Amino acid sequence: MTKGELLYEGKAKKLYATDDPALCIMEYKDELTAFNALKKATMAGKGKLNNLVSSKIFEHLSALGFPTHFIRRLDELNQLVKRVTIVPLELVVRNLTTGSICKRLGVQEGMRLPRPLVEFYLKNDALGDPLVLEDHALLFGWATEEELKQMKKLALDVNKALSELFEKLNIFLVDFKLEFGKDRDGNLVIADEVSPDTCRLWDRTSGDRLDKDRFRKDMGNVLEAYEEIWRRLEEMKA
Ligand code: TMP
Ligand code: ASP
After folding, report:
1. 86-225 CATH fold
2. pTM score of the predicted model
3. Atom of ligand 1 nearest to the CA of 199
4. What is the predicted pLDDT for the residue at 236?
5. What CATH code would you report for 6-82?
6. For residue 8, how many other CB atoms are within 10 A of its CB?
C-alpha cells in the first residue's frame, strides 16, 4: 500500500489517500500540542509510541466487536485505516473530575463520578473546540438523533472495555476523547487515535500521570510516560 495525495494534516497526524478509494494511510507525527496549539513541541519518538499504543488499543476494540476505522499498523509511523467522513464532534468520557471540567464548572479536582459522564465538543480549532449540547448537534446537523445515541453508547462501552484493560496494567483511565467517522455505507465507526495524547492515564499505586498532562503541565519525562504505557501494554500480550 503506497501513499497518495495528502488529504489532511492535523496537529498530530497526516492522512493520505491510497490507490484504494476506501482506504487511507494515517501517519503519526512527533509534534505535541496543547491548549489548542498555543503550546507546541516536537519529541522524537512520540509518533512511533502513539502509533504502537493506538494500534494495540484499536486491535483490542476490534477483537471485542467494536466498529472501528482501523485495519492494521503498517510500520513505525503508519496505519492503514478505512476512509471515513469524520463527524464534527469529539466525545469526552470522564470517570473522575480533572482538566477542563474543573475550570469550566468550578467543581473539585479528583472527584470520582457516580457514573461516567459523556460530553460533546464541536471539532472546530478556530473556536477552540467548544462544549456543545446534543440539541446543538441535532439542530445544526452535525449528527442525527440516532447517531448521537449510538456514539454515546459506543463511548460508554469503550470506557468500560478500556477501563478494564488499563486496570490490568495497574492504570486508572481517568478520561479520554473519542472521534467517530462514517464509512461509505453511512455506518458509524470509532476513528482517529486512542493514546496518551487523548487519554488521562494514572498509575493506580503511585498516582503518576502517564499521559499528555505531563506536557500540558510541564511535569517532564513525557516520552518516558508514553514508553511506560507501551511497555505495560506490550507485556500484557493478547
Ligand atoms: P479536558 O479535560 O482538557 O477537556 O480533556 C478531557 C480528555 O480529552 C483528556 O483525556 C484529554 C482529551 N483531549 C483530547 O484528546 N483532545 C483535546 O483537544 C482535548 C481538549 C482533550
Ligand atoms: N489537542 C489539543 C491541542 O492540540 C488540546 C489538548 O490536548 O490539550 O491543542
Report:
1. D-amino Acid Aminotransferase; Chain A, domain 1 (3.30.470)
2. 0.97
3. 10
4. 86
5. 3.30.200.20
6. 12
Cα of 35 from ligand 1 centre, angstroms: 9
Cell matching residue 204: 493506580
**How many angstroms separate the alpha carbon of residue 38 from the centre of ligand 2?**
9
Q: What is the pLDDT of residue 1?
A: 83
Which bound ligand lies closest to the C-alpha atom of 194? 1
Q: Is the CB of 209 within 6 Å of ligand 1? A: no
Q: CA separation (Å) from 106 to 68, 90, 101, 114, 118? A: 35, 22, 8, 18, 18
**pLDDT at residue 168, as a whole number:** 98
Cα 50 to middle of ligand 2, angstroms: 15
Separation between Cα atoms, residue 54 and residue 50, nearest integer Å:
6
Domain ranges of the chain: 6-82, 86-225
What's the pLDDT at 230? 98
Tell me the chain's radius of gyration from C-alpha atoms.
17
Positions of the chain with pLDDT lower than 50, given as ranges: none
